Amino acid sequence: MARIVQKFGGTSVADLDRIRNVAQRVKTEFDASHEVAVVVSAMSGTTNQLVEWATTVGAVHDAREYDAIVATGEQVTVGLLAIALKNLGVDARSWLGWQVPIHTDDVHGAARIDHIDAASIDQRLSQGQVAVIAGFQGIGPDHRITTLGRGGSDTSAVALAAALKADRCDIYTDVDGVYTTDPRIAPKARKLDRITFEEMLEMASSGAKVLQTRSVAMAMRHNVNLQVRSSFTDAPGTFVVNEDSIMEQETISGIAYSPDEAKITIVGLPDRPGVAAAVFGQLADHHVNVDMIVQTASSTTKTTDISFSVGRLDNEKAVEIIEKNQDSLEFETIVADPNVSKISVVGTAMRSQPGVAKTMFETLAAKGVNIQVISTSEIKISVLIDAEYTELAVRSLHTAFGLDEG
Amino acid sequence: MARIVQKFGGTSVADLDRIRNVAQRVKTEFDASHEVAVVVSAMSGTTNQLVEWATTVGAVHDAREYDAIVATGEQVTVGLLAIALKNLGVDARSWLGWQVPIHTDDVHGAARIDHIDAASIDQRLSQGQVAVIAGFQGIGPDHRITTLGRGGSDTSAVALAAALKADRCDIYTDVDGVYTTDPRIAPKARKLDRITFEEMLEMASSGAKVLQTRSVAMAMRHNVNLQVRSSFTDAPGTFVVNEDSIMEQETISGIAYSPDEAKITIVGLPDRPGVAAAVFGQLADHHVNVDMIVQTASSTTKTTDISFSVGRLDNEKAVEIIEKNQDSLEFETIVADPNVSKISVVGTAMRSQPGVAKTMFETLAAKGVNIQVISTSEIKISVLIDAEYTELAVRSLHTAFGLDEG
Predict the structure, then answer these.
(1) Omega before residue A187 within 30° of 0, cis
(2) How many domains is chain B built from?
(3) Residue A227 maps to a domain
(4) How does pLDDT run across A72-126, given as a tens digit for each residue?
(5) Does A117 lie in the same domain as A20?
(6) Which of A101, B39, B170, B193 is most exposed, with minimal Cβ within 10 Å?
(7) Could you read off the pLDDT tens digit of each residue along chain A, which spans 406 residues?
(8) Is B354 inside any structural domain?
(9) Pair A12, A125 in one domain
(10) Across the interface, which of B75, B76, B87 has its CB nearest the CB of A60?
(11) CB-based contact B68 A86, cutoff 8 Å
(12) Which residues in chain A are closer than 8 Å to B56, comparing Cβ atoms?
């Protein structure tokens, strides 16, 4: 007997038929004498409708009310799934964030889980009742509903798996696992049987959408056994595990890409301490998320250029913020390219195997792809390139690193 | 300065424009330095969708999950209205049933309010914050969401008005008050300025849909000043008041009708004690709501006939239940007429003014309307007639009792 947390996303519960299908999957584990807690998202489309209402009823935003409104999406799904389970003869009940309770901080709209009082659910699981828990939501210190932000249901599932000391946390999604790269642009992509937490983290933050970065980080911290698998097939998925549990490691686990980036270069900044802080402080104050940063100094002109990347949607806003501060920042000019993409090669074994960067740069050069910015971590190399070359670059690197199937 | 509870139904909050309109109405009272608590229903149509999902996802019903699902309708509206109010510069926050809290019994789907801890809202009102409260919902003894059943938002509003010691409880609806009868079938119907609780109670239970019977009974018990008024015009509505606050009372306040009734007659029952109990016990066990009952005994045959009315939707079910018990009940035959309607004349002054029944019966006879069943209370006379004559009967009685406008 094991204790399992299952998480189903919006497309897996998109209509009543799919909810019944999810109930069957829960029943399969339940019938195998496992204790099962299920975390579900809102029916796909529902959250968008609720967000639209909450943001168009008035221009002034109220994050507390926003949370009360959007949290209803998951409230509906947990009730429906609990009914579907009862109809299969499985004892089940729904739990809302405030009923568990899942305590969060008070940052409405993007709350962080503080702690979970899992005692009630723990007891019910031991008694053979399935717990159907609303993902994405919790209760704040002021006794009001909070939400964890987009994709927060993955985080709910991992946090519950940790609090319930679950043997496994299965994330059901519309793909059947983590791939060496996106199969839509590289048909030879292979599904990975295993991937390490660190690699998954780099893949997630480099554009692979299969798991939310936050949930992977939490799983790593609490050593939760994660599995990514399909809601629609019975095939085994991809296990996300500790590095030491993988005996033989390939050099590169995957090629990730993020196609919607913009590159901004500030030319001719004074080369003195505090310049970078001034630039990025301004952007942070306006909630612009900056990813890659490179700085080059010229010893002759005593000026420096700073290039950085932002999500394409933030491009204009970022340029505007910097331009407004031209007087205090004292730069010459600013150049923005809203059509770049980020390509990353990820692999834990990169640490011990030199030559990854060389292979990457040579492969891109051979296809005539110009590298604009480079940034590296211990287990990842990312480059910015012209967005036109995205698919070509991904496929070429996939082949070059021996990831192609067959 | 007064303390006012306002209640807006589903059609008044059907879309974002109407929600903004409601916010304006709240602001009007707020700007007049009143303390305002607003109770709202779900956007019209929402509850039906939620009920459909909850009842079709599986055949086995679970009233607890049903309540968690349908309560989301009001949760969305309170959030949206609170945002709309903030956008008008009015400080406001939403309150869900479990946050107030509104404590109910554990009869999920049709819960009764046990008591309301109004202290938190009371304090916020005193501080000048508008309270936007989800109608129709509460929290049960097991810490789960309950709903009060259809139309329960009126009851929520009245209960809150009592708990908050409000000076007035305004029920906003899509009609502009209580009429002497339904203006759709009697164009000469007049809006009443005032009506007594007792009359409103009889009107409501006789088919006038403007207020839920339960909420009127509660208002009478707690002496809550009720006003029924329009969400769409500024005209004053109808006040529902104590009898002693109306100086000059007309004989008849209104003609109510309920067009979807069925009459069932059980012929040739043994004339002995316990027969009625046996018949109506069976029906009650199967949740068939019986309205009017008449029994006639024949001294020669030692048998009796019982006629009673049920809602038309319950007709077949009721007949089936009685037929199944033909052996134990020992009746001869059963006759059902699924096309009758109930017409009621209502008025407190009826008590002291004889001749109301005479006028009623003569008026109907003059139009050739056959009376099938009669039942009376202190302030009401109801008859069952062939449904074909409904409109004719209502208009004739409206004229006969001097209720026509002008």
Answers:
(1) no
(2) 2
(3) no
(4) 999 999 999 999 999 999 999 999 999 999 999 999 999 999 999 999 999 999 9
(5) yes
(6) B193
(7) 899 999 999 999 999 999 999 999 999 999 999 999 999 999 999 989 999 999 999 988 899 999 999 999 999 999 999 999 999 999 999 999 999 999 999 999 999 999 999 999 999 999 999 999 999 999 999 999 999 976 699 999 999 999 999 999 999 988 889 999 998 899 999 999 999 999 998 888 777 778 888 899 999 999 999 999 998 888 899 999 887 776 666 678 899 999 999 999 999 998 888 888 889 988 988 888 888 888 877 667 788 889 999 999 899 999 999 999 999 999 999 999 999 999 999 998 787 777 888 899 999 999 999 998 888 888 899 999 999 999 999 999 999 999 998 6
(8) yes
(9) yes
(10) B87
(11) no
(12) 16
Domain span holding position B80: 3-174
**Residue B8: CATH number of its domain:** 3.40.1160.10
Q: Which residues from B are below 8 Å from A59, CB to CB?
A: 87
Residue range B17-69, pLDDT digits in tens: 999 999 999 999 999 999 999 999 999 999 899 999 999 999 888 999 999 99
Query: CA B196, CA B219: separation in Å to the nearest integer?
Result: 11
pTM of the model: 0.84
Q: Which residue is listed with tokens 């599986």?
A: B58
pLDDT digits (tens, 9 = 90+) for A351-371: 777 788 889 999 999 999 999
Say whether A236 sits in a helix, a strand or coil. coil
Residues A36 and A139 placed together within one structural domain of the fold: yes
Helix (H) or strand (E) holding A3: strand A3-8
Q: How many beta carbons lie within 10 A of that of residue B313, not counting itself?
A: 11
Contact A104, A75 (CB under 8 A): no
- B260 and B157 assigned to the same domain: no
Domain-ending residue, one of A136, A159, A174: A174
**Beta-bridge partners for A39:** A7, A133
Flag if B78 and A84 touch (Cβ within 8 Å).
no
Q: For residue B57, give the nearest of A69, A84, A144 by CB distance.
A: A84
Answer yes or no: is B186 within a domain.
no
State phi, psi for B313 to the nearest 5 degrees. Answer: -65, -25
Strand partners, A227: A170, A239
DSSP string, B225-249: -EEEEESS--S--EEEE-GGG-SS-
Look at residues A143, A174, A205 and tell me which one is the last residue of a structural domain.
Answer: A174
Across the interface, of B59, B62, B72, the residue whose CB is closest to A82 is: B62
What is the least distance, in Å, from the CA of B82 to any CA of chain A? 7
Query: Which ipTM did the prediction report?
Result: 0.81
Residue in A closest to B100 by C-alpha = A143
CATH of the domain at A373: 3.30.2130.10
Residue B136: half-sphere exposure toward Cβ, Cα within 13 Å: 26
Compute the nearest-CA separation of B60 from chain A (Å): 6
Q: Does A308 map to a domain?
A: yes
Q: Which among A66, A72, A99 has CB closest to B75?
A: A72
Q: Do A99 and B57 touch (CB under 8 A)?
A: no
